[in-house]
Amino acid sequence: MKRNRKAKILATLGPASSSSNIIEAMFIAGCDVFRLNFSHDDIENHRKNVERIRSLEKKYDHSTCVLADLQGPKLRIGIFKNNEEELKKGNTFQLDLNNDQGDQKRVNFPHPEIYENLTPNTILLVNDGRIRLQIIEQGKDFLITEILNDGIISNNKGVNIPDVILPIDSLTSKDKSDLNKALDMGVDWVALSFVQQAEDIIKIKKLIKNKALVMAKIEKPSAVKNIDTILEVADGIMIARGDLGVEMPTEKVPIIQKNIINRCRFFGRPVVVATQMLESMITNFVPTRAEASDVANAIYDGTDAVMLSGESAIGKHPIESVNVMNNIIESVEKDKDNFDLENEEKKFKRKINNTDAITNAAYSIARNAEAKAIITFSVSGQTTMRMAKERAPVQIIGLSPNLTTSRKMQLVWGVNSCHTEDAHNTTDMVKIACTTAKNKQLVKPDDNIIITAGVPFGNAGSTNL
């Protein structure tokens, strides 16, 4: 199935979209990657959705991609006698380990492992920042805070702590259980929530053991600060603007988005822009003009993919949400000024290896020879991802004898990912490349194409041709 665009679309499955008919319709409308949100729904529903997604592969001769998004360590307060309380600016409010129900003076905050790190002047944001508290006194089992604004505080609301790297594992016991089940389902990507530093990614990779690629969700200031070291070890990045917008000033989020996309380009890592992209389509049939501009600007910035969350999971119009996003991307990519690659190349210079040299050359040849496609043979997908980094103006056809690799590459910018037989020699390589491109109607007769591969064939990481 050929897409008429290079940027990809992720769509979250949920109550509004967890049926074979809806999933197939979203796939046809343009969904490239299906996201399973392990913060919601039960394991059996996720398992059934994976089966529904994989059933499309044979019908459409097109690899599908599934991303499992783990919940992560979310901090929460306890419950109140009256379910909620009104807090007044200037008053004090205590968080403690007492299990009694809360009132206007205090509430349970059942996270003893972090109390020592929460020193005076630390800011706590409750309920997505609607309540701001500043610590004025710290104890081993209590925190006395000053209320910085009037507001309502209620049961089990989340707490964000922007300026502190917390001594908590990025994987909860629930996450570890969900991870094992997701890997058993055969998911292609795993997204790790609330990443703070590179070590968080290293830990989960040890558990995954190359069974899936790992995407770091950037939603904390500490992750923004450590973005380069995280990029060194992560396979991809998701800019999760929801929690990021809570923990950082709202006006800084667009700048951070642009900067992270640029860093991902430099490191050759796929990047996803997520959260509230077409939020109004949860209820409305058309998005706001501001939302359309938000999606368009992410494409202009050079993101690999944009993501639908509530729009496709719980919204009234999951299929139309995908269709609208698809149309916006196609419209932007028709703009001749969409992506000025040469200006980007001048900004980013780094030491290159053999694969870099081959892909650079392939891009240059494709541009000068007016080729219609660059075809990459890749067992691991690394050459295909490296080619996508170039943001070549022609389509990239990623061929792999490894079905899991073919599935993973569906997330990557500009890649038409195809599962094929392996080539045994150069003649095989050319035949498979031309036959696949022709059968899938990705090129026309007499079109020029560029092919990259590695000799000997079938060995990962050996791109030299």
UniProtKB/TrEMBL annotation:
Pfam families: PK, PK_C. This is pyruvate kinase. The keyword Repeat does not apply. NCBIfam families: PRK05826.1, PRK06354.1, pyruv_kin. Residues 356-465 form the Pyruvate kinase C-terminal domain. Residues 5-322 form the Pyruvate kinase barrel domain. Gene3D superfamilies: Phosphoenolpyruvate-binding domains, PK beta-barrel domain-like, Pyruvate kinase, C-terminal domain. InterPro entries: Pyr_Knase, Pyrv/PenolPyrv_kinase-like_dom, Pyrv_kinase-like_dom_sf, Pyrv_Knase-like_insert_dom_sf, Pyrv_Knase_AS, Pyrv_Knase_brl, Pyrv_Knase_C, Pyrv_Knase_C_sf. Belongs to the pyruvate kinase family. Keywords: ATP-binding, Glycolysis, Kinase, Magnesium, Metal-binding, Nucleotide-binding, Pyruvate, Transferase. Pathway: Carbohydrate degradation; glycolysis; pyruvate from D-glyceraldehyde 3-phosphate: step 5/5. Its EC number is 2.7.1.40. GO terms for molecular function: ATP binding; kinase activity; magnesium ion binding; potassium ion binding; pyruvate kinase activity.
